[in-house]
Structure formats: structure tokens, C-alpha cells
Write a structure and sequence with these properties.
The chain is mainly alpha-helical. It has one domain. The mean pLDDT is 84.
Length: 274
């Protein structure tokens, strides 16, 4: 999980740099294309080869690919509008949304302490977002909240699929689904990247594929309650990259909001496991 977060965090920094001249849809499409090429190469070298791509759960693969494609585009758009540390601070609240989805769709129950943690987490998000920062902040916040919501669905599908599907099968349908979905929109926003931007798009694809592979491995071999605390290492990388490349720093109020979110999410995760 730590390796996945590091690789994906580096991907986000490259994406933020790329959004200066390239539409998030094109960036997402490029990532899926590179990922698909890498997955096909890995499948060709594996045993039993392409037979490992057979699946009896095509609809779940398609649903995960749709959620991932839209989630990815929304997040890339968000970090083009708001600082990377702020975006990742909001993303850190994903367990709160996952809990609410579990209550609505899986009829899970939450104790009083859990509900208090949910409301505390939302209060923490208000401290992080600080709507008075302007229109870009509001648009970026809506986009990142949308991405978090869809990310929760994608994670749910990944967890379900990992019980019967191979790692390469999950990656293949994730990648080809993203290529098809974003490929429909990319021609309308395409721009010819400069050589350095091509290198950035290639890096986004490679890092994205490697990060997803590590993420799937972690979901297969460890329970969510164990993995959850390590996900917050993303805040460290986002803050580091944001400070080095864009001089973005979380102020005291936002840091307090992040602390509340992390504490609330860890409490919720522990509560749901017991």
C-alpha cells in the first residue's frame, strides 16, 4: 500500500503540471492507453497468458472502469483548480463516503460514535475547503468530491473482483474500459503535446499502471482496517510535492481540518471492523 500511494502520489504531481496545457480528459486517456499496453505485455509474458483474461463478471468490470474513468477525470480537473495538498486532504475523507454508501446500499449499521465521527469528518472538510477562497476553489472542491464518491464505488468493485479475478484481469478491463470511455471524448479536446509533455503523459501511464497493480495486491492480501492508516501517507507526498513545485502550504486551520478528518476516518474504519 505504501508503494502504491507513493507511485500514485507522484503521478498526481505530474498530472497537475500537465494540466497547464493539456485537458484532463486527454491526460486520463493517455494514462489508460499506456496502462493497457503495459498490461497486454505483462499478460503475454504470464501463464496462462491471455486465457487469464476470461471473466464471468463483465458487468462489474465495466462498472468499475466507468467509475474509474470519470473519477480520474474529475480528480485531474480538480487539481488543475485547487492546490494538490488541499485536494488530497479532501480525498482523505473517502472512508466517510464509503461508510455512507455502505449504509445506503449494503444496509450496514453505524453506532452513535460512528455517526459523530461522520459529522466531525464533514466539519473537518469545511475547515480544509474554506469556500471563501473563490470560484476556482468551489469548482475544484465539487470535482474532487465527485471523484471521491466514484473512487469509493471503484474500490468496492475492486475488492469484490479480487476474490475471483486475477490481478492482470482486473487491470486489463480497468485499462481497456478507460480507453473506450475517455476515447469517445478525447478527439474533442486533443492538443499536440510538446516533447516534455509527451514524456509526462508516458510517466503518468506507467506510474498509474504500477500504482494500480500495487493497490490491487494490497487489497488482496490485507484487510481494509490494516491498510486504511497507510493511505494517509498520500497527504505527506501531496504536501511535499505541493511545497516544492507550487509553493503550496496548508495553513494551521487546514491542518486542523486534516487532523479531524484523519481521526474521524480511522475511528470509523475501526468501528466498522468490530
Amino acid at each position: 500500500m505504501l508503494a502504491a500511494i507513493l507511485v500514485l502520489g507522484s503521478t498526481d504531481a505530474i498530472v497537475k503540471w500537465s494540466t497547464t496545457n493539456i485537458n484532463p480528459i486527454q491526460i486520463g486517456f493517455s494514462r489508460f492507453v499506456v496502462s493497457l499496453i503495459m498490461v497486454l505485455w505483462l499478460v503475454g509474458r504470464s501463464q496462462p497468458g491471455f486465457a487469464s483474461l476470461r471473466t464471468k463478471r463483465p458487468l462489474e468490470h465495466a462498472a468499475r472502469a466507468f467509475c474509474a474513468a470519470v473519477e480520474l477525470t474529475a480528480f485531474y480537473y480538480a487539481i488543475s483548480k485547487i492546490p494538490l495538498p488541499t485536494a488530497m486532504s479532501i480525498v482523505s475523507a473517502s472512508p466517510i463516503f464509503g461508510t455512507l454508501l455502505g449504509i445506503v446500499f449494503l444496509r450496514e449499521r453505524l453506532r452513535l460514535g460512528g455517526w459523530i465521527a461522520v459529522f466531525a469528518g464533514f466539519a473537518g472538510m469545511l475547515l480544509v475547503v474554506q469556500p471563501e477562497e473563490g470560484a476556482n476553489s468551489l469548482i475544484g472542491t465539487i470535482a474532487v468530491l465527485t471523484s471521491v464518491f466514484l473512487w469509493c464505488f471503484a474500490q468496492l468493485f475492486a475488492r469484490r473482483l479480487s476474490t475471483t479475478e486475477s490481478n492482470l484481469s482486473i487491470l486489463f478491463y480497468y485499462a481497456i474500459g478507460g480507453v473506450i470511455i475517455l476515447g469517445l471524448a478525447t478527439p474533442f479536446v486533443w492538443v499536440n503535446p510538446a516533447p516534455l509533455e509527451w514524456a509526462g503523459l508516458l510517466a503518468v501511464g506507467v506510474f498509474g499502471c504500477v500504482g494500480q497493480y500495487f493497490l490491487i495486491l494490497s487489497l488482496r492480501y490485507a484487510p481494509m482496517s490494516l491498510l486504511a492508516p497507510f493511505e494517509y501517507s498520500a497527504l505527506v507526498w501531496a504536501s511535499l510535492y505541493g511545497y516544492i513545485f507550487w509553493d503550496d502550504v496548508l495553513g494551521p486551520i487546514k491542518i486542523a481540518g486534516v487532523a479531524i478528518i484523519v481521526a474521524a476516518c480511522l475511528y470509523i474504519t475501526r468501528t466498522m471492523e468490530h
